[in-house]
Amino acid sequence: MNFVISPAPIPVVPVAGASDGFPVRRIYCVGRNYAAHAREMGSDPDRDPPFFFCKPADAVVPVAPGVTGAVPYPPQTANYHHEVELVVAIGKRGSNITAARANDHVWGYAVGFDMTRRDLQFALRDKGRPWELGKAFDHSAPIAPIVPADHCGHPVRGRVWLEVNGALKQEGDLGDLIWSVPETIAHLSTYFELFPGDLIFTGTPEGVGPVVKGDLVSGGVDGVGELSIRIA
Ligand code: MN
Fold first, then answer.
1. What are 10-63's pLDDT values in tens digits?
2. Rg (the chain; Cα; Å)
């Protein structure tokens, strides 16, 4: 069958240390997965469990190693925030995956930024409306190359950090995740069948805040990698 319009290109994230690419199918994100960040967002981490939202696959902005990516300041916001996160890349299909088997479904890991139009997110949240305008906009998922789990293992501890113009803004540790990566995969896979190509942004530690045009935003997860972008 001929297409009546040109099909959109498949979003691809490079694989670290190789010329290969990881084709992105879906982007799932965990909200409130570090207790201190849940508190700074005005919720009670003991009472409110983490939850999930999505971004479109073509929200990824792949950034090559050693390169500062360019990410445009988005429209319709006056409070554009950084969130640094460990990203899980799924390599094996499954639903109702047990936490004990979850790592078998992980192809690799990356550092990503869940960029957020915080003013829109909060306005939508307060009205009980969907979050897409605040979270699922164009260029909202800058991401570093994906490191195969064969190389980095399955990290359970490691510093998660982010700097704006060299000043430390966010700092946490994977060991402080409310839901570990295997638990996150287990829960998410009860709602959605996961497929190779799915990415899971696992949540951000405390210290989120605004960025403006010209800012240099750098972050990383120890043992996984680093990511730098300039707000253009
Ligand atoms: Mn986030």
1. 999 999 999 999 999 999 999 999 998 888 988 888 767 789 999 999 999 999
2. 17
Long-range contacts formed by 29-32: CB under 8 A, 24+ apart: 29/53, 29/54, 29/55, 29/85, 29/114, 29/135, 29/200, 29/201, 29/203, 30/179, 30/184, 30/188, 30/200, 30/201, 30/202, 30/203, 31/203, 32/178, 32/203
> What is the residue whose two structure tokens read 């399955």?
154
- The alpha carbon of 83 and the centre of ligand 1 are apart by a number of angstroms equal to 6
In contact, 162 and 208? CB cutoff 8 Å: no
CA of residue 58 to ligand 1 center, whole Å: 17
pTM, full prediction? 0.97
Question: How many whole angstroms from 208 Cα to the centroid of ligand 1?
Answer: 9
**Beta-bridge partners for 68:** 228
Q: Is the pLDDT of residue 223 over 80?
A: yes
